[in-house]
Give the backbone structure.
Amino acid sequence: MNQSEINEEARQEILNSIRSHLATSVPYDQIYTKTDSGIHAAPFDDGDSEVAGCGESLVNTFSENLEVVDGHCLIVSDDESAADAVNEIISSLGETALGPHRTALSDAPIVQRISGKLRKVEYVSPADGVSDLFTCDVGITSAQTAIAETGTLVLDASRERHRLASLLPPVHIAIINESQICLTLAEALAGIQARGEISPTVTFITGPSRTADIELTLAIGVHGPQKLYVIVIKGM
Amino acid sequence: MNHLTSETFHENARAALADVQLRGALRNATSLFGERRLSAARSLKNWEELRSQARSIKDKVLLNLNVYIEEFVRQAETRGARIHWARDGREANEIVCRLAKERNARVVVKSKSMTTEEIHLNDSLQDEGIQVIETDLGEYIIQLAGEVPSHIIVPAIHKTKKQIAELFTSELGIEPTDDVAKLTSTARTILRDKFAVADVGVSGVNFGIAETGTICILENEGNIRLTTSLPAMHIAVMGIEKVLPRFGDLDVFLKLLPRSGTGQRLTTYQSLITGTKRRPSDEGPEELHIILLDNGRSRMLAHPVTRQSLACIRCGACLNACPVYQQIGGHAYGSVYPGPIGAVITPQLVVFEKTSQLPYASSLCGACREVCPVKIDIPQLLLHLRTEISQGGGRLDVSKLKRSRFESTAFTLWATIMSSPSLYNASTKLGRLVQRFIVNKGQIRQLSKISAWLFPALKAWTNGRDLRPLDPTSFRSHWRGELSRNVDESKRN
């Protein structure tokens, strides 16, 4: 038998096994089966009762929840001040031995717009190849959505080349507009589907990379970024 | 390596109980995670509704599993994923090895996955001469030490940082340090090099979405993102029970799983992967292979009690809540899945006769049921499996089990006595007569000595127990005397 025949045989056997074992359980399930209606009901009122800043603006809620998970949120008024904020973050990193900070940029419009205003950086585009990205100090991306109740960024690979720029460098800076923030996880999930054909990769990011695998001691920045900054441009 | 040591559960447990360091580590971990889980659950107003909703969704999936799994396959294939079916672990391992060899893979990076632990994938890859690297920090430590995980969420919970530092010094040649940040960054640096050259990335799957063919994987470290982004081939090994009907169902499960596992509102990263990249210039692997693993799962569908086992989302909450696990840790269970859920899953997945001690590794206190985010009635499952073991029949092949004649005779006798008032009366009278000779300072002590010659089969139970003697007068005689009069009077008043 060739591989595809074996695969087909395994498929048939597993599906038959599922069907036959379910069939023997039917008598037991007469009382057990519930009607299905309503179990996938639209998200009900499920806001976190302890979420900080509820009732205030989404951006404040987002900011407070991002800080809870050790991320940093900076709220600015326009592109210009967003670029200033990025410059400040980069200069706070100190001088690297190699001179300018190697910075990976995603292809999001907002990232491209401010990239011309950055000082002391050397740009690395994701198109330059993976090995260049391994040596970057900073990654700058946008995000397609942010979730206020959890402080989460949602990045969609079909709209932004984000995967490695947001993952490999030790510092990740994300620049978003205030209007991209929604309140709940359910809204964000609905938003991903509402765009029609689902993106091949959607990444949710809530704070910097972390682990507690050694004696439950929290260590920030294990495989992913050690620092996460989100710059929110207000009122656009 | 001997993977399954459940047969020697009692010996394992005794050894674990004697390990003071292990018990300290377990106490810290289980109480910390227990507290975090509780406060995370309380931060949601509708925690109980969410649990019920999650269970209803799981029940719906499991009762129609063939329909949802076929829909999942259709959707994933449409978007470029290749689907492989594996009846058992051996078949799944063969598929992974074949795919890796097709790419001439020399290095495979792996993210933490209980399913690949279950089938012992690493051994198979190594037998083929392929280097396989665990990239989750805890799993990496375990792999360096040549051990197996002892907790679903924190695999190296049984090791101190001193032991880990010594391990890193001897295996990786670093300067001795007890700084956790330094140990972590050492692992990061070494594993980065592995990620850079790996040909294949192997991951597990937390949820597969039938509606869209999406696989969703949760983590905190970022190694899953690296595993699924850098190598040209991504292989995901997924138990057939991991399907959810709709994309929107993730809302419910992403609220429950992190809160139950680590007490987080969300883990740091969720990767939602739907097929392969659409343009060659996009980031990410060229190939996505999803292996659907049965390995005994479809058999569990046959009965509503055992079927519950398939609702498990591997959060580890029941481990942390279990008074038995808290004392003995994961290794004593002798299988990949430890704790209460392990005690019910392992006997159903693996050779039953080698794991028949596990369903007894519980006091049936019900703490696991209380914390389970999908409301699995684990005590009910434990009792169900015990029944199957004692009857030696049922769905599973237990013909090779040693059945206790004594146990069934004793319980038949007990049932006969308890259902007959006169026999019951006679037996308590006899008991009162006999106990005069063995009561010592108000207790029946050294039961084990008595049972050693009277009922050797009871020894395991009597070893650690003293019994209170029967009251000199029975309730019945109390009732015939003053008690009934008092009740009558209080009624009149």
Notes: Chain B touches chain A through 102 residues (CB under 8 Å). Chain B has a mean pLDDT of 91. The first strand of chain B starts at residue 82 and ends at 86. The two ends of chain B are 75 Å apart (CA to CA).
